[in-house]
Write a structure and sequence with these properties.
Order of helices and strands: HEEHHHHH
Number of helices: 6
Oligomer: single chain
Radius of gyration: 16 Å
Largest sheet: 2 strands, antiparallel
Structural class: mainly alpha
CATH topology: Arp2/3 complex 21 kDa subunit ARPC3
Shape: globular
CATH class: Mainly Alpha
Number of strands: 2
CATH architecture: Orthogonal Bundle
Number of domains: 1
Amino acid sequence: MSQKNLFSFFKNIRSLVLVSLFVALYAVFSLFAIYITNELRFNFTFMPVAWSSVLFGPVAGGVTGVLGDVLGWMVRTEGPFLPGLTFSAFVSGIIYGIFLYNKEITVIRVLFAAITMIVVVEIGLNTLWLMILYGSAFKALIAGRLIKALILLPVQVFVLHSTGHLLKRISPVYNRI
C-alpha cells in the first residue's frame, strides 16, 4: 500500500478528475459574482477551493485556487489579470487545507479556517492587490472590505461546515471506488 502525501492527488486519475471538477466549479462560481464596486464583490469561489483542500490537502486546494482563478478570469475578463489575486487563491487553498485536511469538520475548526482566510487573504493580501490595481488608498478600501468580511464570515462557516460533513461522509465511499 502506498503512503498518501500532499501530492498524492497527482498520481490518482480519479483525484485529478475531481480536482478538475472543482476548478471548473470555481470558474462557474466566478461568473455569478455580485459587484458592489470595482474593488468589492461577493462570490462563492471559496467553496471549491475548500472542498478540494478537505479531500486532497493544502496543495490540491492551492492548485484548485490557482487554476480556477485563471480559468475564471478567462471566462469573465473584466479588468486586467493580476497574478497577486491568483496568489491569494493559492494561499486560500493552503489555509483551508491546514485547518480541514484529515481533520474532523467542527464548527470551531471551520470558524478558525474562515477567520484566518478572511484576515490573511481578504483583508490582507486582496486589499494590497486592489490598492496596486486601482491605485486606491488603504483607508478607502478597508471599510468596505471589513463590512464584506463581517457578512462573509457566517456564510463561509455555515456553507463549509454543512458541506464539509457531506464531503467527509462520501470521502470513504469515494476512496473505495
